[in-house]
């Protein structure tokens, strides 16, 4: 054979090999990108506790999941109180409403974080999300529907999200995800491999413009394949269980955990459109308007009878789908139109860019596919447009709006405002109730400092509770202060704050009931003398717990004037179910933000005035706090001078009440809690002490304008000063 004929054959063989290599690299690249985005988008929400907890909570927005859980919770309630079966039709809808609420999702997030270790960090075989506090939420909802039924729900019921069979199914389902989670570390490497393979497929192709179009098409196919993962959950659910209810639950879980794939699919699709537009522009081969004209001719011009029947069937099917699912059909049409517009816009951009860089297009581009001297300019132009488009797309899709966070069960307002979420604890002003335990709702309490008990105070907006705890012994209808257990506390020590009249009255009551004790010494809320008013600590703390469970976006501070052992106080908080809500982080700066405390679900910060050691989360108050004096007999006496606590302590408390021993007067609170007076004093103390007042402690918080002043100092009212600490 002549040597001249061998050269074209060799060139053809080399071209064929290049085409095959380019195709193989493109397939490997597209598959790698698809797998990497699935692993990176979904597995992260499985192997990391916080995303896992958020995704589990997000499943409650699916009616199939929420109704199933509501039925299981109702089963647990009826199992403990069988007589409630007659009112199940009333009970279950109320439970359903609870399951869909933000407080319930907050409880689920907390339980899911705790269960995560059992799923992935231990050898446990079963997964169980128990919600020991769910009865609190259910009773609260039922109070509005049927208070009589609410009263019959047993306290402390441990409602479980699933029956033993469902538990086994959930464990198997989530356990399968664990296999994906084990290769999460390789997701980034796989993604880089995929991108490199796609780039290499373009580089080795004999016609790079065509390769760009093919690469764009493959990435667009990756986007469609990613979106196909979501409806594939129905197939997975059918394979895992035959029960229709559990199928819905599993599909709901699947959808929630694979939800992050949607924005990733959008990014991959945009990358595909950019590459296809770049290659198509250089080839001048894909004109969307010409394609639409061809499609219109196909729809309107006569065809072969067989083809015409097929066309009619397709058009009929499209019409039936549009009538049956108008929203989906409209969404699909808008998406197609949007893609066409994006493609068209990118073509125009590339035309301008390529013309300015001198890159050949059309026939000239095809004539010199590999030897084009402007190849690097072409690559640079494509890279710049790709970076701009993908950067804008990523910025758009990864901005998490408040509505999405709410649907996922995340808290979007901290202590009543989104503005406060990113502020540290010591950058926020809290409304404080002085002697919060001393209130008029307690039967027999003498000389109350507040009008409402803890739940009412919290509901109204108080976020700092200043309380006294003593040892007391029940004696018939009174409680006797147990001075024998209070160490250095004596009658003379507390005579000053109460005054001689109250002290003498307390001593008379004490002498009358000494020797008539009816129980053992225990913890009581008292003000100086339990003889003047007392009630057990545990039930009152349980009221605080119930309120905090129902309000997952609130951070509360408690300052304890303690006359008891820290260990005994710790037991009371533990028995009240508050232990998991207490902030256990370091007592030094910087303090966490409200958002962090809420995300950790450690929303209760405790300070101990005595500073006794023994319990780390009972922080010494006067190491972390500083305050003003607190004994003022008229407004003119008010001072911002230092009292307890060092000048460098991170929290600053302003004591703002008139001392009228033994009985505080609401009329005085009306004066000193007024907006102008209290705001002026807070600003004066801030200036003088060079510190934001974190706690405004007042008597009769519901008299005057304490909450308005707090909002102003936090910068939440028009004209208010933004609270930013020192």
Secondary structure layout plus pairing:
Blueprint lengths: L2 H45 L1 H10 L4 H18 L7 H12 L2 H20 L8 E2 L2 H12 L1 H6 L6 E2 L3 H18 L5 H18 L3 H22 L3 H8 L3 H14 L3 H23 L4 H13 L4 H20 L1 H32 L4 H6 L7 H23 L4 H6 L22 E4 L20 H7 L3 E12 L2 E4 L9 H23 L8 E6 L1 E8 H14 L5 E7 L3 H10 L18 H7 L3 E5 L10 E2 H4 E3 L23 E6 L9 H7 L2 H15 L5 E4 L7 H8 L13
Parallel strand pairs: 3-4, 3-13, 4-8, 8-9, 9-10, 11-12, 12-13
Antiparallel strand pairs: 1-2, 4-5, 4-6, 6-7
What would the average pLDDT be, to the nearest integer?
Answer: 79
What form results from the Cα inertia axes?
A: elongated
Going by CATH, the architecture of the domain at 418-713 would be Alpha-Beta Barrel
CATH superfamily annotation of the domain at 418-713: Phosphatidylinositol (PI) phosphodiesterase
CATH-derived topology of the domain at 418-713? TIM Barrel
CATH class of the domain at 418-713: Alpha Beta
Portion in beta strands? 5-15%
How would you sum up the major sheet? 11 strands, mixed
Structural description of this entry:
The chain contains 28 helices and 13 strands. The chain is of the alpha/beta class. Among the domains are: 57-178, no CATH class; 418-713, TIM Barrel (Alpha-Beta Barrel). The strands form 2 sheets. Strands 3, 4, 5, 6, 7, 8, 9, 10, 11, 12 and 13 form an 11-stranded mixed beta sheet that branches. A two-stranded antiparallel ribbon has the order 1-2. The relative contact order is 0.07.
């Amino acid at each position: 054979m002549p040597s001249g004929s061998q050269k074209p054959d060799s060139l053809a063989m080399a071209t064929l090999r290049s085409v095959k290599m380019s195709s193989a690299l493109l397939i490997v690249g597209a598959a790698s990108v698809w797998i990497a985005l699935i692993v990176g988008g979904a597995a992260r929400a499985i192997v990391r506790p916080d995303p896992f907890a958020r995704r589990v909570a997000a499943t409650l927005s699916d009616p199939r999941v929420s109704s199933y859980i509501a039925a299981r919770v109702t089963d647990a309630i009826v199992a403990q109180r069988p007589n409630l079966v007659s009112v199940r039709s009333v009970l279950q809808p109320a439970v359903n409403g609870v399951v869909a609420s933000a407080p319930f999702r907050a409880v689920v997030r907390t339980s899911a974080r705790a269960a995560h270790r059992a799923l992935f960090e231990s050898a446990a075989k079963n997964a169980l999300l128990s919600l020991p506090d769910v009865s609190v939420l259910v009773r609260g909802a039922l109070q509005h529907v049927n208070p009589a039924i609410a009263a019959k729900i047993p306290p402390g019921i441990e409602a479980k999200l699933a029956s033993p069979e469902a538990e086994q199914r959930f464990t198997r389902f989530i356990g399968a995800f664990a296999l994906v989670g084990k290769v999460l570390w390789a997701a980034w490497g796989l993604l880089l491999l995929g991108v490199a393979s796609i780039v290499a497929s373009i580089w080795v192709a004999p016609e790079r413009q065509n390769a760009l179009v093919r690469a764009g098409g493959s990435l667009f196919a990756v986007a469609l394949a990613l979106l196909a993962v979501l409806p594939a959950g129905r197939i997975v659910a059918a394979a895992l269980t035959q029960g229709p209810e559990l199928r819905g639950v599993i599909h709901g879980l699947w959808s929630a955990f694979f939800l992050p794939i949607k924005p990733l699919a959008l990014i991959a699709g945009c990358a595909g459109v950019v590459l296809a537009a770049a290659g198509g522009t250089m080839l001048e081969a894909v004109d969307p308007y010409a394609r639409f004209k061809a499609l219109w001719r196909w729809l309107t011009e006569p065809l072969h009878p067989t083809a015409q029947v097929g066309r009619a069937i397709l058009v009929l099917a499209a019409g039936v789908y549009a009538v049956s699912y108008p929203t989906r059909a409209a969404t699909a049409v808008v998406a197609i139109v949007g893609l066409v517009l994006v493609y068209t816009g990118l073509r125009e951009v590339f035309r301008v860019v390529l013309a300015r860089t001198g890159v050949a297009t059309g026939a000239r581009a095809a004539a010199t596919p590999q030897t084009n001297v402007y190849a690097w300019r072409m690559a640079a132009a494509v890279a710049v447009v790709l970076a701009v488009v993908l950067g804008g797309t990523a910025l758009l899709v990864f901005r998490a709006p408040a509505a999405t966070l709410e649907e996922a069960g995340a808290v979007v307002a901290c202590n009543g405002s989104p503005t406060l979420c990113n502020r540290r604890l010591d950058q926020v002003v809290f409304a404080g109730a002085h002697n919060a335990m001393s209130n008029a709702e307690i039967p027999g309490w003498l000389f109350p400092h507040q009008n409402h008990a803890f739940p009412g105070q919290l509901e109204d907006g108080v976020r700092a509770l200043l309380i006294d705890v003593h040892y007391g012994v029940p004696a018939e209808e009174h409680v006797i202060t147990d001075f024998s257990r209070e160490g250095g506390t004596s009658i003379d020590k507390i005579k000053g704050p109460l005054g001689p009249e109250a002290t003498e009255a307390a001593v008379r009551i004490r002498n009358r009931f000494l020797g008539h004790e009816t129980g053992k010494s225990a913890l009581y809320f008292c003000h100086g003398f339990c003889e003047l008013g007392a009630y057990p600590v545990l039930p009152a703390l349980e009221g605080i717990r119930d309120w905090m469970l129902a309000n997952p976006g609130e951070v509360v501070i408690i300052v304890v004037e303690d006359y008891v052992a820290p260990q005994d106080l710790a037991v009371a908080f533990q028995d009240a179910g508050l232990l998991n809500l207490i902030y256990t982080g370091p007592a030094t700066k910087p303090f966490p933000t409200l958002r962090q405390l809420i995300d950790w679900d450690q929303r209760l910060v405790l300070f101990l005035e005595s500073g006794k050691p023994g319990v780390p989360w009972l922080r010494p108050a006067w190491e972390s706090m500083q305050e003003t004096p607190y004994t003022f007999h008229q407004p003119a006496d008010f001072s911002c001078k230092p009292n307890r606590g060092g000048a460098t302590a991170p929290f600053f408390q302003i004591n703002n009440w008139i001392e009228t021993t033994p009985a505080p007067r609401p009329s005085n609170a009306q004066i000193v809690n007024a907006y102008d007076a209290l705001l002026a004093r807070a600003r004066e103390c801030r200036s003088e002490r060079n510190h934001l007042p974190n706690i405004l402690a007042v008597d009769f918080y519901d008299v005057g304008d304490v909450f308005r002043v707090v909002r102003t100092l936090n910068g939440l009212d028009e004209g208010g000063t933004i609270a930013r600490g020192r």
